[in-house]
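Quiz preparation item.
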């Protein structure tokens, strides 16, 4: 039961936790960050890790000299791309078995085929946009694999989305993360980075459900 408060404290005060880690373990911070980003994007059961806020804080630390901007961008971009590839591969491994299932209470083959068609037509923008959506970025590559989105298309949009996400958010943190007002309200900014994209996803899902019902 203590895990949830500890995780919440880490997410909301990730800057302080990383500073302590750097003081104690130095360059091992890069291995820790690589692992967190890889697990968040590469393991479908770990959607709650603080990807956006972590990248922002890393950028801010690069701005103060605690971390190296080039190393951080390179390693975390690799983690983000490889994580998505892992998640996609897991989904693609499951996919062929799912295709063999018949319609049942738990599986609708027509809906599954529609998902495959959707990812072939619109999967690119979904993979890119999902990078900026907590939870959704963990599930999107897995679903793309299950829906049998072609590997070449997935790799293209995985690299594009990963680059925009990692380079973009680290750079924003690098240039703006050490402004006094930002540092003072960092916990609120982290909440906004979590809640606003989540609300956008929920609003889109609600709109789609109402449209389907109509």
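Solution:
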């Amino acid at each position: 039961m203590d895990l949830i408060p500890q995780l919440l404290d880490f997410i909301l005060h990730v800057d302080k936790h990383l500073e302590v880690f750097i003081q104690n373990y130095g360059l091992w911070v890069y291995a820790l960050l690589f692992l967190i980003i890889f697990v968040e994007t590469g393991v479908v059961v770990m959607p709650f890790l603080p990807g956006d806020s972590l990248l922002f804080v890393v950028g801010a630390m690069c701005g103060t000299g605690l971390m190296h901007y080039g190393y951080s961008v390179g390693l975390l971009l690799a983690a983000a791309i490889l994580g998505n590839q892992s998640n996609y591969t897991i989904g693609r491994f499951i996919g062929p078995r799912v295709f063999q299932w018949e319609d049942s209470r738990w599986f609708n083959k027509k809906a599954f085929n529609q998902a495959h068609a959707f990812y072939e037509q619109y999967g690119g923008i979904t993979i890119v946009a999902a990078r900026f959506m907590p939870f959704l970025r963990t599930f999107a590559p897995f679903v793309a694999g299950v829906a049998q989105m072609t590997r070449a298309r997935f790799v293209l949009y995985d690299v594009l989305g990963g680059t925009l996400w990692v380079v973009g958010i680290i750079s924003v943190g690098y240039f703006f993360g050490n402004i006094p007002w930002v540092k003072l309200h960092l916990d609120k900014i982290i909440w906004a980075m979590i809640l606003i994209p989540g609300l956008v996803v929920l609003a889109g899902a609600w709109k789609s459900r109402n449209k389907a019902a109509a």
